[in-house]
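Students often ask why we bother encoding 3D structure as a string. The short answer is that it lets us treat folding as translation between two languages. Here is a chain of 222 residues written in the first language.
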Amino acid sequence: AAASYQRAKLIIKLINDVAKVVNNDPAVRGLIKVVFVPNYNVSLAETIVPAADLSEQISTAGMEASGTGNMKLALNGALTIGTLDGANVELRQLVGETNIVIFGLTAAEVEERRHAGYNPRAIVGANPQLSQVIDAIASGTFSPDERNRYKSLVDNLLTTDWFLVAADYAAYELAQREVDAIWRDKAAWYGKTIRNTANVGWFSADRTVREYARDIWGVPVR
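And here it is in the second language, the structure alphabet:
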């Protein structure tokens, strides 16, 4: 979650630094690979979207950051894991709660957490796995040439965490385990993805344009 251009660039740098470590680790080589695609555009999407198995729409609830990407991925047979943000809300209504994996705080709960005095450091400290990840980033595991490269990211996460990444992390981890279980049952997985594709036609441009013509522009529609 990038609150500024500078932070966005730093997060992208972290993704690429993590990729260097993971992709050169002989223990996982051939099993997992981290790739950051620069200059994502329609031409690349034409290849990536149909090939995707899982659509991650994990913006903080209430930020309205989840939009057309989840529609394209669902139309092409990807199962969605996401928060109740943006178009995910409508997507769940269309495909059914059993055909989408929803996790995390609701928009109302996000506001309640902020007003109640949110303490991300306590949440991280209570979760050994998350704490280990943050410590690895902070210690320079992924940036040995510049140990303090991600100090500002870690400090922000532990003190402010406006996007409530720490608050949603445990729920996200459980949701990923649910996705793993579905993936191992091929009949269940393909059943859910087929229902996604079959039920998200409501997002089509034809329907959208007809509604705009009727409700906003006031022009005849056929």
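Translate back mentally: Strands lie at 54-57, 79-82, 101-102. Keep this in mind for the problem set.
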